[in-house]
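Ticket 4471: requesting a sanity check on a complex prediction with manganese (II) ion. Repro inputs:
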Amino acid sequence: MAKVLHTGDTHIGFRQYGLEERRDDFAKAFLQVVQLALDEEVSAVIHAGDLFEDRNPGAEDLLATLQGLSTLKAAHIPFLGIVGNHEQRRGVQWIDLFENLGLAVHLRTEPFDLDGVPIYGLDFTGRRDVHPPRCEGGVLVCHQLLDQVELDGELALETLWTCGAQFVLLGDYHEHRSWRERDLLVTYCGSTERWMLDEKKHRGVNIIDLHNGRLERHELTTRRFLYIPSDEDPLQRIGNSNVQGAVVVVYFKATKPTIAEIEQFGYERGALAVRVRDVRTPTEHPVEPSVNVEFDDVEQVISEALAKKNLSPLACEVDQIIRDLAIADSNVDPEVTALLERAWREKQ
Ligand SMILES: [Mn+2]
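Returned structure tokens:
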């Protein structure tokens, strides 16, 4: 008993590289985690935020999510979650809707009792300093960046040693990490599919025994990514590998073959996607020849770059308004003004 599955950063609904196959992969990873929870007979699934890629998941994303949550409910495994930065809405949150349907519990600073262990939750609070609540003898679940993983991370690891919790289960950072000091375990579970190209390691989840503090990693079976370093000949490597259905990632610093040739060869060999990353330093190539790189996916490149900037939810909303093609250019100003006025009023 009191063995919990800690997951997060599922990003259901992410149509990575503009591909339906990838959207499907993110939902499947969630269902795989649900199956693992059943197989491992855990007492609860604890989700540390970013269940969805954004705050408007599509019907197919909701369907997969409801299937997963219903499966857990039928197996009497509670799903305990918080809100991450990606899915955060003004007003009602998705987790509230699932809670209303009896399929989930929205963890809050008032603890949920799991077989005698108090479980506290803190929704994503923005990129400002975070002060953890008191969590005496229990588990704190939150979605923030620790100063140990990002220099300007808003949550200081130091403050967690004194919050009273025995376990701090984190989401937001997409790699598995953990720290132990005295009786406290602090851990990131990592994302369940590769959300960015540099998430090279195997994806997985944490299974934690709340009685003895033991943490086990369980790897997930996810879409194959073939990483080709810049010192290898990409055409030769692709030719010698089974790339059928895989995402091929080429780090590239030579001038031959061309990026277009690498892409074409990868697709001919059956790759699902070919991403070429130019790793030459600007001084090596003052004239940028790779005009076609990522052109079909420019929105995605911008999203990935912005995600690294740790913008506030408000700044992200401004960005979404500006990039939303459904909003006419002449309406961008009034939309942004209205948004800022709303935010200002909420602060009063
Ligand atoms: Mn995330």
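Notes from triage: The chain has a mean pLDDT of 90. Leaving this open until the requester confirms.
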